[in-house]
Amino acid sequence: MEAVALSPIPNTAVKLERELRAELAEIGVVWNSLKQVLPDWIDSAFQSRSGIVELKTFLSRNAGLQLTSDGHLTTKQLPAACFKTNAATSVDQVTAARSMATACARLVAKATKTPYTRLPDEADAFREKILKYGDKAWMDLSMLLSACWMHGIPVLYMPSLPVQGRKMEGMVTFVSGRPVIILTKKVPHPDWLLFILAHEIGHLAKRHLPEDEGQAIVDDTVEVKAGDDRDQQEEEANRFATHLLAPGGKEVTIGKRLPVAAEFAAVAQKYGQDNGMAPGYVILNAVHNSSINGKKPYPLGQAALKLLLAEDDSSAADLCKNALRERIDVNLLRDDSIEFLEKLDLL
Predict the structure, then answer these.
(1) Assign residue 91 a region: left if phi > 0, alpha if psi is -120 to 50, beta otherwise?
(2) CA-closest candidate to residue 316, choices 188, 192, 190, 147
(3) What's the whole-model pTM score?
(4) Are strands 73-75 and 82-84 parallel, antiparallel or unpaired?
(5) Residues 220, 200 contacting (CB under 8 angstroms)
(6) Which is nearest to 182 in space by CA: 163, 160, 207, 212?
(7) Residue 134 and residue 155: Cα distance in Å, rounded?
(8) Which of the residues 11, 39, 176, 331 could staple to 109 if both were Cys, CB 3.0 to 4.6 A apart?
(9) Residue closest to 346 by CA, chosen among 161, 72, 152, 174
(10) Mind listing the pLDDT tens digit for each residue in 249-289?
């Protein structure tokens, strides 16, 4: 009798986890990343089929997924969104990110204490109103976050969504009776988010987003500099953003001589103080509007941002998380949903 190669039979837990991993991969969800943000009880879920049903029910309630009639997970059906993607990105690549971000937005929207009121549609007037409540002559991320929350518009910062493919830089969606802004660009300095957030605010202020459940505008990439391929809504959102962040929409460029980082930071600090612009925004605006040897000097901008004089060292994630914590009522959420939001670093 010939020898036969034998393979061990996987135990129930390993088999069930492998099946779920494959099921999630088909809809663009990365199990190893998702597992890190799930409640602690999920390890025991793989001991039985009933545990898997409980886990899938949790995912359908919190992660933008739904159960089919035969018990499989699929992406929850949402209304057709307005996807602002570039030529290198397909709508399918950001669908998984949109679905999970929408589910989190819905959780936060339901727990937001401040009623929703529409934003002013004129950026200059809105800027003056915000600055009256602040202690600076320019708009920083903390002030812009507060302005959104004062209008009952939550802002979620989610740079580590556990999904495959590209993630949008910014998105606005209407859920549970209010718009919610989602930012996903991972940034080293809070001022990197200023223009993205102001751009998404512009979409809302200019009434680009239909106020119907699940509607969304998904911005693959948000750019300061408008181009021939940008549509009218993007142009309007960009114009609103520049006027919100600088008096009269003022923009700047780097001169012919490329400065060193320390000089760039010092000039931006003074220019921002003299002209009512956040110094970090001055740096990034100048970088976006300049070209040195055919390239935008992003490394110089990053180096200069690190040298700016800062009143505190709060990260973008800290600022967004603190704003959210202060303005939602966690008693309106289930315990496992709270844990999920905490592990996603939203709470």
Answers:
(1) alpha
(2) 190
(3) 0.90
(4) unpaired
(5) no
(6) 160
(7) 19
(8) 176
(9) 161
(10) 999 999 878 899 999 999 999 999 999 999 999 999 999 99
**Contact assessment for residue 250 and residue 278, using Cβ atoms and an 8 Å cutoff:** no
Contact 277, 138 (CB under 8 A): yes
The pLDDT mean for the chain works out to: 89
Cα–Cα distance measured from residue 320 to residue 200, given in angstroms and rounded to the nearest whole number: 15
Maximum average pLDDT range among 54-58, 162-166, 225-229: 54-58
74: β partners: 66
Whose tokens are 């940008």? That residue is 230
Lowest mean pLDDT among 43-47, 52-56, 163-167, 257-261: 163-167
Residues sharing a CB contact under 8 Å with residue 15, sequence separation 6 or more, in sequence order: none
Question: What pLDDT does residue 88 have?
Answer: 53
CA pair distance 295, 287, nearest whole angstrom? 10
State whether residue 113 is helix, strand or coil. coil
Q: Judging by DSSP bridges, how do beta strands 178-183 and 170-175 pair with one another?
A: antiparallel
From CA 167, how far away is CA 175, in angstroms rounded? 20
- The SS3 call for residue 288 is helix
Looking at this protein, which amino acid is placed at residue 92? D
Give dist(CA 346, CA 305) in Å, integer: 25
Q: How far apart are CA 12 and CA 63, in angstroms?
A: 25
DSSP assigned state of 222: -
Closest by Cα among 12, 8, 94 to 46: 12
Which one has a higher pLDDT value, 134 or 281? 281
Q: Give residue-wise pLDDT tens across range 156-185.
A: 999 999 988 778 899 999 999 999 999 999
Task: With a cut of 70, say whether residue 228 has pLDDT above it.
Answer: no
Instruction: Report the C-alpha gap between 21 and 31 in whole angstroms.
Output: 6
With both helix axes pointing from N to C terminus, report the angle between 192-205 and 141-150 in degrees, rounded to the nearest 10: 30
Q: How many CB atoms lie within 10 A of CB 147?
A: 23
3 state SS of 26: coil
